[in-house]
Write a sequence for this structure.
């Protein structure tokens, strides 16, 4: 064996290594639990609050796609309750309308997937939201484009779900609230001085009202109020 | 203390394999190597947390502690460091097939031969070829001049080759 061969063989002894489990265990015994893994130094009490916060934020974010009857749906609802709680009185009608639309989208998804078990829960969630929306519509002082857009969306969503489910969805409170809102706006417009063209548009609003096309009526009312 | 713990945690990660290997080739037993290595780090941690500023060279401190523990081990057990390479008791007790196949017969042969060398020869070979320590650091660890360390390394290699050829 030459010198270089011998040295090469000696260097091969580097392959002798301690067992990984023993290395970790010994470190734990010497330094205590918290210093065992550098990787987990994040889990210090000082970071615990932040960690929980991030975990919850992730959970809430993740829950946004949950459907009624699913475990994560509960977190989705918490987020929405927070949304309502932190919105001003003026914003509440729009936020409630958005949430009622969300419920209809969930219903649509469930109906399309044919997840029959979730249907009843989704329907009651929608009913709860839509009556809350009806209540907040009573407080609308001025119609804006967001409210108009959301009521239109709700009418479309409702129609789509009714088509898929082949059933009529009862939204009496909401319809009544919307009717009162349109009626109030019609009365206000009648009091104001209008051009001939505007008078014509108001007539169309009245026709929509008669035919219970409240969302269509609201679009025209918004047009008139912006003129 | 937390800062010291963090520092020592890094030291542990950096040196655990080296110290284990250093001890293992001296005691030729996984179990004893584990015990003595663990004790080496426990003692070093005890000193480090009390007076880390007094430890100038942590690597040297670890090797010296390990070396002393190995010496104590042989003294207490009344065992001789020099054991015949043919003695079956020096065979690596590990039963792990993968590990055994890694250490093929040639390597096993060198390991056994290394084990029979005197302490200074073992140390200089392990430090220079396995742990890649420069001659200057080895000379400090052994308390010799650089020249004397080079001569020692040369003699150690010669002794190892003789031992290999003898067996």
């Amino acid at each position: 064996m030459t010198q270089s061969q011998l040295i090469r063989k000696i260097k091969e002894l580097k392959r002798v290594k301690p067992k990984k489990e023993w290395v970790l265990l010994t470190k734990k015994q010497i330094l205590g639990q918290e210093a065992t893994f550098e990787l987990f130094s994040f889990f210090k009490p000082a970071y615990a609050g932040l960690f929980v916060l991030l975990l919850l934020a992730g959970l809430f974010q993740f829950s946004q796609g949950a459907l009624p009857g699913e475990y994560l749906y509960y977190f989705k609802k918490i987020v929405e309750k927070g949304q309502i709680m932190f919105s001003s009185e003026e914003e509440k009608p729009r936020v409630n309308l958005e949430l009622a639309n969300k419920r209809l989208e969930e219903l649509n998804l469930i109906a399309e997937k044919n997840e029959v078990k979730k249907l009843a829960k989704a329907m009651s969630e929608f009913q709860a939201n839509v009556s809350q929306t009806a209540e907040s519509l009573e407080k609308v002082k001025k119609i804006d484009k967001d409210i108009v857009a959301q009521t239109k969306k709700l009418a479309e969503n409702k129609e789509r779900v009714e088509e898929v489910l082949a059933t009529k969805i009862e939204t009496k409170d909401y319809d009544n609230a919307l009717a009162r809102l349109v009626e109030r706006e019609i009365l206000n417009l009648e009091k104001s001085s209008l051009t001939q063209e505007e008078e014509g548009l108001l007539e169309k609003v009245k026709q929509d009202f008669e035919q219970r096309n409240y969302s269509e009526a609201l679009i025209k009312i918004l047009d008139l109020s912006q003129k | 203390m937390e800062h010291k713990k963090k520092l020592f945690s890094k030291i542990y990660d950096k040196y655990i394999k080296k110290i284990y290997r250093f001890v293992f080739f001296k005691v030729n037993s996984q179990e004893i190597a584990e015990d003595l290595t663990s004790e080496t780090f426990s003692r070093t941690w005890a000193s480090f947390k009390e007076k880390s500023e007094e430890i100038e060279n942590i690597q040297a401190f670890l090797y010296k502690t390990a070396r002393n523990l190995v010496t104590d081990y042989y003294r207490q057990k009344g065992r001789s460091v020099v054991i015949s390479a043919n003695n079956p008791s020096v065979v690596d007790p590990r039963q792990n097939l993968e590990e055994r196949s890694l250490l093929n017969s040639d390597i096993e042969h060198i390991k056994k031969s290394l084990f029979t060398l005197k302490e200074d020869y073992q140390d200089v070979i392990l430090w220079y070829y396995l742990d890649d320590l420069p001659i200057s650091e080895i000379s400090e660890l052994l308390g010799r001049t650089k020249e004397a360390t080079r001569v020692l390394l040369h003699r150690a290699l010669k002794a190892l080759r003789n031992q290999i050829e003898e067996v």
In short: Residues 81-95 of chain B have pLDDT under 50 and may be disordered. Chain B touches chain A through 35 residues (CB under 8 Å). The domain at 1-80 of chain B is CATH 1.10.1740 (Rna Polymerase Sigma Factor; Chain: A). DSSP finds eight helices and no strands in chain B.
